[in-house]
Amino acid sequence: MNVGVERARDLPESLAEKPGRALGLARLDFSKLLKGQTAFAPCLRGAETSWIVDVSGGYLAYEAAIRERSSVLKDIDRKCRKIKREIRPCRFTAMSPSSTDFQTLIALKRTRLK
């Protein structure tokens, strides 16, 4: 669940005292809060469902289940083949911890926004 708080004064006293009021924050955003958490309930401006990935049976079992119900991995495979054919070899790594991968992603996003 994503939570947006418009003004620090909207926060309950216990949450706003030090960081919110002292810093004069205009907005606090929280994401991935559990639905049952009530501390931010008075400030809730909206909520949306987050995706949960179940890899308890290992990645191969997860991949098989995804391929059964969605074409997302098939689409990624197709796009990788196209990139390999037209540009250079590529590899899809979900949630890569590489800072180089992240910087490349940001550069590609910036190029698309121009």
Features:
single chain; 114 residues; mainly alpha; 2 domains; two-stranded antiparallel ribbon; 4 helices; 2 strands; 46% helix; 5% strand; disordered N terminus
Description:
With 114 residues, this protein is mainly α. It folds into 2 domains: 3-43, no CATH class; 53-96, no CATH class. The chain is built from 4 helices and 2 strands, in the order βαβααα. A two-stranded antiparallel ribbon has the order 1-2. The longest helix has 15 residues, at 72-86.
For the terminal residues, how far apart are their CA atoms? 32 Å
How much is the radius of gyration in Å?
Answer: 21 Å
**Number of distinct beta strands:** 2
In round numbers, the mean pLDDT is 77
- Summed up, the domain count is 2
Instruction: Spell the H/E element sequence.
Output: EHEHHH
Structural class estimated from helices and strands = mainly alpha
Strand content: 5-15%
The count of helical stretches stands at 4
Helix content: 40-55%
- Please state how the strands of the largest beta sheet are arranged side by side: 1-2
